[in-house]
Amino acid sequence: MAHFGFENDISAAMRIDKSMTKVPLMRWERKLAERPGSCGSSKNSPSKPLQQQNSVHSRTPGRTPFKSSKGLGEQNKTLTPSSAATGDRFIPNRNTTQVDLGHFLVTNRSASTNGEPISPTKEHFQKTMNENLNGQKFESKIMGYHQRPPELPEGAGSQLKVLYSMATPGTNTKSLRHIPQAPERILDAPEILDDYYLNLLDWSSQNVLAVCLGASVYLWHATSGEIQQLMEMEGNDEYVSSISWMNEGNHLAVGTSTTEVQLWDVTKMKKLRSMGGHSARVGSLSWSAHILSSGSRSGYIHHHDVRVADHLVSSICAHSQEVCGLKWSPDGKILASGGNDNALHVWSSDLGQQSAVYSFNQHQAAVKALAWCPRQHSLLASGGGTADRCIRLWNVNTGTCLTSVDTNSQVCALLWSKDYKELISSHGFALNQLTIWSHPSMTKVTELTGHTSRVLHMAMSPDGSTVVSAAADETLRLWKCFAVDPQKKAQKSVAQLETGIMRKMCIR
Questions:
Q1: How many other C-beta atoms are found inside a 10 Å radius of the C-beta of residue 311?
Q2: DSSP assignment, residue 274?
Q3: Are 335 and 357 spatial neighbours (Cβ–Cβ below 8 Å)?
């Protein structure tokens, strides 16, 4: 019968679901059994070796538990720094593991693959229920041994941007810049016309602000604070409908309700010439070097060469209603025009061309607010009136609309920041606010409130740090919303100077 006992021992040793009884003792168990005062081997009392193993904290069973010469009371001290929260560095902490959720996901996916295909309606219902009951845990990984990423903020473009931009502990995150919520200065603007289709404000490169107040044009020197009256219309019902500074900042173009376009020398406070040709008031003006483009209520755009006596270069029937927005691109290659017919046209620098390169009809109201990006000359921003309320970004090279944002209010004016990738817009009812948008995400950065009526016009200072807004409440407010850090500004000026020197050396 001895061979039956041998076969039973082999069968017991090969079974893995039953504890092994007839096996050699481990080395640390033999050491424990040989100690004086021991209660016997682990074969007779298997629970005691386990208690001794747990008493030696953070030590592996492969080593001799009581090899140290210290007393028994000193053997329970921790030999290496450890933390109960982190555990062994080779064994992850399973406290954060969603074991039940992982089991459900695995069994659910396997059951769904073996069964019949689920209808789209049922799949949508299951997805909605899972999102409401489990939240984001249902879409997370089954085995997660690290800290969860931060929640996606409202209005963010992509979840990946949040995941891969998460700051690690100990790193310094960049703080957001401070934008003053109160205007730096408030000026009175009595008798300013409450007309959406006019352009009554402009800031020159010489730091002189021009504003139209009824039949007069006033100049405010931002450096000294001096105020001068440049001109005044003679008739009772006559008024100034538009102004625009030349790039050099020493000449000012003035459009009037009498269909004239006047050219003034600001340094001499003298009118140089009057240019006719329009049959209605001139509501918009824009410069491109020595070419002055003017748009009128008749829908025509005239191009004037101010250097010659025969100033009218070309005349274009651009819109079926009043031309209320007119802007040349910074490089002078493209002209954008917006009208009360809800149309936006893009024209080439070929002044003899009578047809637009692109025509956009996505706006549902008058297009007055136009602004070219100073960093990308092919990027145009446009804003619609009360019935539209949208800001749209266009790529004029391809003729495509890149982004559209509903502002929930009338868009009166648009300006791009020179130092930040941001866009500021002025609005009418109901908040009468200025809104700063981040580009290209077009998320709202902040809102500047204070005007009690719609903000019809905006202009930017030559250094790009200050924006002036003119509203129908007869006030001008100066907002220092794009201030630059002096150190960064100095570094930028040094870099520009070095670039200029290198270009001159290359030319030579």
A1: 20
A2: E
A3: no
Picking from 324, 253, 333, the residue whose alpha carbon sits closest to that of residue 288 is: 333
Question: End-to-end distance of the chain based on CA atoms, in angstroms?
Answer: 110
Measured CA to CA, the distance from residue 265 to residue 270 in angstroms comes to 5
Say how far apart CA 353 and CA 369 lie, in whole Å: 24
Instruction: Note the pLDDT of residue 27.
Output: 81
Pairing of strands 291-296, 227-232: unpaired
* Residues 358-361: contacts with CB under 8 Å, at least 24 apart: 358/396, 358/399, 360/392, 360/394, 360/399, 360/401
Look at residue 117 and tell me whether its pLDDT is greater than 70.
no
CB 197 within 8 A of CB 283: yes
How far CA 241 is from CA of 137, 199, 250, 373, 505, in Å, comes to 60, 7, 20, 26, 47
Q: Which residues contact 208 (CB under 8 A, 6 or more apart)?
A: 219, 220, 221, 222, 245, 249, 266
What is the pTM for the complete model shown?
A: 0.65
320-346: per-residue pLDDT in tens? 999 999 999 999 999 999 999 999 999
Helices 27-34 & 47-55 angle (0-180, nearest 10): 100
Closest to 328 (Cα-Cα) out of 297, 287, 380, 369 = 287
Pick the closest to residue 453 from 440, 469, 435 (CA basis): 469
359 vs 41, 275, 398, 404, CA distance in Å? 94, 29, 12, 17
Helices (H), 258-405: none
CA distances from 178 to 185, 417, 444, 446, 459 (A): 18, 15, 15, 10, 21
Give the Å distances, CA to CA, from 189 to 11, 120, 469: 103, 62, 11
State which amino acid sits at residue 65.
P
Structure tokens at 242: 């538009």
DSSP label at residue 199: B
pLDDT band at 157 (very low <50, low <70, confident <90, very high): low
Closest CA to 476 of 225, 282, 215: 225
At residue 230 the predicted structure's pLDDT band, cuts being 50, 70 and 90, is very high
